[in-house]
Amino acid sequence: MGWLDGRTARLVGHCPAIATALTAQGATLVADGDCDVLIHVAPPPPVQLAHEQSHAEWRATLDAGLDQRFLLAKDFAAARRAAGKGGTVVFVGAPEQALGADQAAAGGALGNLTKTLGVEWARDGIRVNTVQTEADDATLGNLVAYLASDYAAYVTGAVMGVGLDD
Amino acid sequence: MPVPSHHIVPLPPPFGAPPYPADIFAGQTVLVTGGGTGMGLAMAMAFAQGGANVAVIGRSIDKAEAGAARIAALGVRTHAISCDVRWPDQVAAAFDEAERALGPVSLLANNAGANFPVLAEDISVNAWNAVTRIAIDGTFLCSTEFARRRIARGQGGAIINNSAQYIWTGFPGDAHSAAAKTAQATMTKKLARDWAAFGIRVNAIAAGFFPHETSTAGRREGGTEVLQNMIPAGRTGSIHEFGWLSAMTCTPLLAGLTGQVIVQDGGESLRRSLMMPDYVPPRERAEGPWGWR
């Protein structure tokens, strides 16, 4: 029996470890449309000193690490509400302080956005959690799959890492 | 107020469907402090569902034995030990006894704690010492005893600490526990770093409201039914889902997880409005410092 048997999951972004864990736990991956689980993986931006970073580079990190995530989650939640069903969102990305100032801003904002949406949508049965890590392995995949499942039904608004430096 | 019927309340799978195979801890022994009742018993049951043998330690041997009997019903070996985790000689003796009875302890759940609502000015020295030292010194003493034994054997292990959701905000009306539970979480991160090279992982659950027969909430007149609507998730926690997450962190499924404090509180600690009910200091609350209505 898998943690996500009978559930559909949309994985946005590239992370084979998460895809493997989701399917191993019984989820059916879908490319778009309504689904039970939304996982959004943002790639880590390059490390740059803040004063050497252009505004365009800055904005690209904030767009991928924050803006696009919020807009996608907002659409997901609207679809779940319209369907009268709950759902789960898991954001995955780099640790807040491990890279540049752009990631510090995007990661910090994402953390508090997670806490906010987790409560704002709680009575819609929609849980929102975030994993900020440099890990890209089976532990990350299993952790994300667990958070996406009913086994984490009492976990929402949680921001966590995987390893020591997360 | 009951939870409105149009709200959706996510529920965990039933106790009989744990998230890991029945042999995931086979051949291992877990030592659970305060494992005879409440949240410690839930942790112990969860480890037993994964096949671990369980050493239950507690100040009351009667409670430890009663808990051990319930755990043994799941088909694992158990052993109950009387121990006050505030004293290093008692902790060492408890590990000795556990290992004689069940074999090397490779998993540790630091759960022992005391907690009760009280105004800060009414906390006696004895009460302060009891609450803070059981959690802070007890976690330190049990963890270091565990680590020394694992390091001596050249083998890794995993520790899970039972912390609380109020460690980031404080808890007016519960100063001793606010301090104690935060120490458990902050030491989790440092112990994980100290012992990473030895393959010993350390994590914590910042637990929310999981009523049980020995909790203050569980003894509340009228039960806990009327408290469900105060949690964003629409319910208080089920004790077995706390046990499962605790044990999950120690499985090979999360082999890379260490130094993490995972909040499991149904969003309780995140409740916030720009406009909130008038602030009432704990000493002026009609129903005591925790102010449950």
TrEMBL record, chain B:
The parts of the chain that form a coiled coil are none
Alphabetized Pfam families for the sequence: adh_short_C2
Query: Among its keywords, does the record have Chloroplast?
Result: no
GO MF annotations, alphabetized: oxidoreductase activity
Gene3D superfamilies, alphabetized: NAD(P)-binding Rossmann-like Domain
Please name the InterPro entries in this protein's record.
NAD(P)-bd_dom_sf, SDR_fam
Going by the entry's taxonomy, the superkingdom of the source organism is recorded as: Bacteria
Write out the entry's keywords from A to Z. Answer: Oxidoreductase
This protein is called 2,4-dienoyl-CoA reductase
Give the species this sequence originates from. Answer: Novosphingobium arvoryzae
* Source lineage: Bacteria, Pseudomonadati, Pseudomonadota, Alphaproteobacteria, Sphingomonadales
